[in-house]
Amino acid sequence: MKELGRRLRPDRAAFRFTRYLTPIACAALLSACVGHIGEADGEATNGKNEEALCSEPSAGASPLRRMTAEEYRNTVRHLLDVDVSSELPSDEKLGAFYANSQALMNELDVDRYKEAAETLAKAALEKLDTLVPCDLTASGEEACARQFIEAIGRRAYRRPLTAAEQSAYFQGPFTVGQKGGGFPGGVRLVIQTMLQSPHFLYHIEVVPPGDQSAALVPVASYELASRLSYALWASMPDDELLAAAEKGELETAEGLRAQAERMLDDPRAKGGLASFVVQWLKLEGFDHLEKDSAAYPEFTPALRDAMLAETIAFADWVLRKGDGTLGTLLSAPYSVLDGPMFDFYGVPKPADHDPSEPVDLDPGQRGGILTHASVMAKHAHADQTSPVLRGKLIREALFCQLLPPPPPEVNPTLPDPDPSATTRERLEEHRKNPACAGCHNLIDPVGFAFEHYDGMGRFRATEGDLAIDATGELISADVAGTFNGAEELVTKLVSSEQVSRCVANQWFRFALGRIEKKEDTCSMEHIEEVFQGSGQSLRELVLTIATSDAFRYRQVSQ
Amino acid sequence: MKPNRAPLNRRFGRRQLLAGLGAAAALAPFLPLSSRADAGVAPKRLLVFFHPHGTIRSQWLPTGGETDFELSPILAPLADFKSKLVVVDGLRLYPQGPVGGPHTVGPAWVWTGSRMADGAEFKHDCCAPHGWNTGPSVDQAVAKVIGQSTPFSSLEFGVHTGGYKWPGSRISYADPAKPMDPIDSPLEMYKKLFGSFGIAQEDLDRLRAEQHSVIDLVKGDLTSLGPKMGSQDRIKIEAHLESLRGIEKRLDSVYQCTPPGEPMSVDAGANDTIPVVSRLHIDLLVAAFACDLTRVATMQYSVGENSGFRFTWRGIDKGHHELSHGEDGPELISIYTWYAEEMAYLLQRLSEVDEPGGNGTKLLDNTLVVWGSELAVPQSHAWEPLPFVLAGGAGGAIKTGRFLQYNEDNHCRLLTSVCQAMGLDVEAFGNLDTGGGGLSGLLT
Asked: Could you give the angle at which helices A538-546 and A221-233 cross, rounded to 10 degrees?
């Protein structure tokens, strides 16, 4: 469903560091060049300097978060079986992931929710019989209305409504809506109101009544159900999860894990996984990505959509049907292809092919998610590759390292590119000039590994008539060393403990909707240990995060 | 697509809201004419016009003296309005507090004249984490004072500003950590401004009753939720409540205006239709001023980083950001000149519309347009000298037709002058202000 203006910043990252030169600061201080995501108050969250605290649960502060647009869309689909067709509020982005936890709501946000609620409630009426399975003739309008309010309220608020809340809905929106539009009008206005309530829009976690002095409390059952469903599905709890919450099953790590396992096996997990992968690999806005039509005329919307579908389908298959490991995700010699992708990759389509099953890729060409056309095309320019963008992706998404902008007083200009040189050769200046090399040696050589994938992700043996040199060197990493091509680079990444820790951190941030703080150190250490010890099982990673102290407890801020 | 120059109510082509004309007659005026202090005194309007990436000074700076200056190549498109301009050179941003990525902090620093908050939220650009803004932007500070007289206290127009919020993408801030969001889609803006026209009175009444019942319940939810949250989170609930009250107030307002036709459908996210969107938005903005729907607006082109614009309609394939780290060549000059052309179109439109209320002036005479960027020098991201161009008379508050050269004055003094020109009684603006009041010699 096309929504005018609704897309996530296309190519925002594309030109961020193009030609950024960092003299002075970087040349002298390579280590100062690189910051780390997640260092709170200057302390690393590797846990080396935290000791006996781990005997008690602890968790970093969790600010109140409003749903992201993606969560809203998924939730509305599961609640009402309708699709959003209007503009939703812009999401805030902290680090790699969307989380609306800092910026305050403005009038446009409220207006957009209002518009969306009006349209969605009207659309929901088309399935009134499913929505309100109540015999109006037998029970009468009031009884059916009250039943409806209770049932939908429980799902919309993700907890049972109090008697007072139910009454407010009946006396207010239902009655007013009924006046103008009969029973359906009342139903419509109830839905319209619920979709604008803070109990729907925010991930509500209240300060529990009673003991106000406790600094840390267990997350209440229904709130925990929400945390779990949004972490795993990027959507609302289903009835089974709400029932488990009601019975108190989520209060133990075992009960929580049992639900998490069930939910990982549910098809709705694909939505959660897609959300993580797209944000982690910075693929936002891919559905609106444009390429230079002279350089890449084959980059049509149909091909582009198939590329994104491949990446999501592949990740989903690995996690839920395959061995679920990071190694497989990064290096598998197969993928899940459909439509134009077969031709694009030069892979023959098997007879009676099941589009949800993987097919072998050409081992001489590519393997693993980093060499997907989507990733290569997103991290490139409109008309050529970008080793800088690709190197930056690896540093940020896999090593959790951040790179600085040039200092303001410097005036760097680059010479115009030499058309008879390869992309790699044209970037020589970055590394010949000692003022630039400090930072660019971290980035460019990593990006060169991918030079065999052009700016739209197609495999190329040569760059025009010129031979490609895909050798590079990884520095400032535990698996530092040289490599030739993407496959060798990926082998290093899979064996890196830093990458392992970083991926664990990334998923933590996604699942919790915030960056880890020092109070999360114990949880994080445990999560990293289990991840590494399980052979980097992403499934274990998700389950361990969902049952960690950081997930099950929260700080109560007064 | 070449924008036509037809009169206001036939500007857009396609459908006309014929019913709107009938409904307009049935509506009572929102703004009783007696609220205007004296007959013939027009309200002032403020428009902040933003483009990213500074400019090429050597091609932007006029030559000559204060009143006898020549426009530069980049500003040449504004030749017809030279007598309405004030080109301001020599201002400088003096930052304090956390220094993050230049494109991330530039928009907030320049337009709020305030530092970024201490905090760890934004680490896109390493080494100096920071939070959101600590003060309001100049447009919102003005809107707080004059915005209550109109249905919308302000309007934010966006050309390809993208979908998500981070400080580099926002120039308008109502409060600390409260960015305003530009609307990229002309159709969405049109529906927001004119969507309620053409609806029969009885339907309007029913709709209002419904919306009031919704808002009452939601307000109740928010109010009872507040005490159950921690203090930091309570601020968010409060902000939500405040925004809701703004909507509620507007529910009961009616306004008299002949709405323009609906704008043509265009993909506001595509690159090549950027110039189309720009003109559609400018037309809507002028209509909004003419209908007195607001008196404060921002027109924001792209965001601090501007990786999304490829100026294909100027024959340029490379992205603006990429080019801005190269030499000051003809492509960059062409880009900055395009922004001047859009500004010229805006001034043209404002100069065509008679001031409603009929005191003989034009909209432009009572408007203050402030055109600026988020930094000065594209290659180095330096913040001095910050380029600004003012236009319009602000109802006579500013003497126009001048080229003013300052000597590293704090740019907050310009923001102060802007507030003063709009009738605010202030002597400073923003927590980066170092005193001295407004810019000397700017106001009449």
From this structure: 160
Q: Which helix (H) or strand (E) holds A66?
A: strand A65-66
Q: Look at residues B393, B444, B440, B395 and name the one whose alpha carbon lies nearest to residue B84.
A: B393
Separation CA A324–CA B392 (nearest Å): 63
Q: Give residue A338's identity as a one-letter amino acid code.
A: D
DSSP state string for B45-66 = EEEEEE-SS---HHHHS-EE-S
Interface test with A, best of B110, B148, B165 (most A CBs within 10 A): B165
Report CA-CA distances (Å) from A124 to A405, B210, B227.
48, 17, 33
Pairing of strands B85-92, A35-36: unpaired
Contact A557 B243 (CB under 8 A): no
Distance CA A136, CA A98 (A): 43
Which residues of chain A fall short of a pLDDT of 70?
1-53, 211-214, 404-419, 435, 558
Count the neighbouring beta carbons within 10 Å of the beta carbon of residue A243.
12
Which pTM was predicted?
0.89
**Token couple for A529:** 């240990």
Q: Are residues A328 and A345 in contact, defined by beta-carbon separation less than 8 angstroms?
A: no
Query: Could you tell me where the DSSP H helices lie in A234-348?
Result: 239-246, 253-265, 269-280, 301-320, 326-331, 341-345
ipTM: 0.88
Range list of β-strands (E), A67-166: 91-94, 97-98
Distance CA A523, CA A549 (A): 6
Of B103, B178, B270, which has the smallest distance from its Cβ to A103's Cβ? B178
CB contact under 8 A, B246 and A177: no
pLDDT in tens, A275-304: 999 999 999 999 989 998 889 999 999 999
Per-residue pLDDT tens for A193-232? 999 999 999 999 998 877 666 689 999 999 999 999 999 9
Residue A100 contacts residue A67 (beta carbons within 8 Å):
yes
Q: How far apart are CA B47 and CA B428, in angstroms?
A: 20
> Which of B231, B317, B325 shows the shortest C-beta gap to A19?
B325
Q: What would the pLDDT profile of B370-382 be if each residue is shown by its tens digit?
A: 999 988 887 777 8
Residues of A in contact with B306 (CB under 8 A): 15
Chain segment B47-104, per-residue pLDDT in tens: 999 999 899 999 999 999 999 999 999 999 999 999 999 999 999 999 998 887 778 8
Q: Count Cβ–Cβ pairs < 8 Å, chain A vs chain B.
A: 260
